[in-house]
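Exercise: predict the fold of this chain.
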Amino acid sequence: MDFINIAKNAKQASLEIAGLSTEIKNEALIAIADAFEKYKQEIFEANKLDLNFAQALVQDGKLAKSIFNRLKLDENKMRDMIQGVRDIANLEEPVGKMLLTRELDKDLTLYKVSCPIGVLGIIFEARPDVISQISALSIKSSNAVILKGGKESVNTNKKIMEIINHALSQVEKFPQNVVQQVFTHEDIAQMLKCDEYINLIVPRGGNKLVQYIKENTKIPVLGHASGICHIFVDSCADIDMASKIVVDAKTQYPSACNAVETLLIHKDFQKSKELLASLQLEEIKLVSNPERWDFEYGDKILSYKFVDSIQDAIEHINTYGSGHTDCIVTENAENAELFMNNVDSSGVYWNASTRFADGFRYGFGAEVGISTNKTHARGPVGLEGLTIYKYKLIGNGQIVADYANGIKQFHHKDL
């Protein structure tokens, strides 16, 4: 089937799922989670094929080790994948929420109501669990979705999609073509041109992928090009806390987009040598004079710099950061507030690891991705970020001429 027909089917599916009840959507999600549990060995077998293929690419220098690390599905990731779908089923219904009720005049009432976006186009690299997260979020938020994964995970992606659609086919009244998948570079090119049917593109991958997508589509793009996260250790920081936070933010999952890449240390911090030594003990490679400050290592490598003041730290982050997630470690509440108010990022933290920037950890159930945009949705994008709103106006024969001519007056009363 060519891409245009896939997109047309998705558009029709988005109109059908928009009217689906919460009960049917939740039934579909539970069916998917149960199917993952039942067929997980088949998913692992498909994943082994991809890992073997990807390992050869890594050895030939054609695939980054960080991408390979994201590709592997093990029992822990599978458990989280299954639980993530169940958690989304348990979340509050995001569609049809009343966001505003305003009486413009007697018997003329305006309602602002949440509704689905429509059709989502998702382009991602490596992580096959993205399919389960985004499919579940799309179903719960009453959106249709077309997914395009990387060639390194094609076997796993196909198997997961096969299981999802088999589960959905068993749910009475659930429409077809809500969740679809494409595979080729030509499909990406067609997707980016398909503004007639696709309402939002979400890229999940490296800087080159995101930049390419942003430069080659008229469709709104939600996402982040890179994760240049910073931690600033203030002069009055606690050394044990600082060491623990930086180690976690760098080593817990080095290839994640919310891993710290640059450490800024106040020149008056008395325990700086102790801090750097503690990082080296964790086998973190420290770089004091990097070629560039806006580089995402995706590995246990950390650039660091001494700064003269908190203002210098803020300026550095706003100059070289990617607007993702940045943290201050300090015992001074005033400094923390200054930092969080003036750092221009989607996540600003005080005394907490940047690795908390995640939809699951925020209680969103899962995330489509992390957005550094300043419109519609920002930070980890969960259910709320996959809805928009419409205005409903209910009157009783009113016409604008009466208000324009002064016969009637608005009183704009919020109810």
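Check your answer against the key: Residues 229-356 form a domain with the Aldehyde Dehydrogenase; Chain A, domain 2 fold (CATH 3.40.309.10).
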